[in-house]
């Protein structure tokens, strides 16, 4: 199962929760992608290919190189389609808290100084703003493409729908011992 959405939408949180609820394998794509000092890990693609060959799993649908591989092996795509203002509030608070706490993220990395939002064109906050509409475009492309007939897409617009899905279809799938939620 894949979870997609823009940065700050809750992809990792939901994918991890789905994995725990359905007893699936889980790996956070960011932990595979980011090496020390935010450099891409050369093993990333191989790690993704190894992960998807395992038993039932859940993860985030992100990174240009990984998306096709993940999509080829997934049966469900959960699309977190939150309004931009919700995502921006979440990603701003998350980024600030991580920076102030100097929280280690992946492979020794921490959030850069908050002032870099003004100096780094690829800063996460700027990225979240610029890329918000791209997720929807990618999902619509999938729905028109070769995987459309075998891939269930669950579109959740806002936290209320996420909570309803978690307490409804996801909970029922867990009670039945299923590995996917359609």
UniProtKB/TrEMBL annotation:
* Gene3D superfamilies recorded: P-loop containing nucleotide triphosphate hydrolases
Q: Keyword set for this entry?
A: Kinase, Transferase
Q: Does the keyword Transferase apply?
A: yes
Q: Which GO terms describe its molecular function?
A: kinase activity
Q: According to the lineage, what is the superkingdom?
A: Bacteria
The protein's matches in InterPro entries, at most eight in alphabetical order, are given as: Cytidylate_Kinase-2 (IPR052922), P-loop_NTPase (IPR027417)
This chain's protein is named Adenylate kinase family enzyme
The record lists the organism as Saccharothrix carnea
Could you read off the lineage of the organism from its UniProt record? Bacteria, Bacillati, Actinomycetota, Actinomycetes, Pseudonocardiales
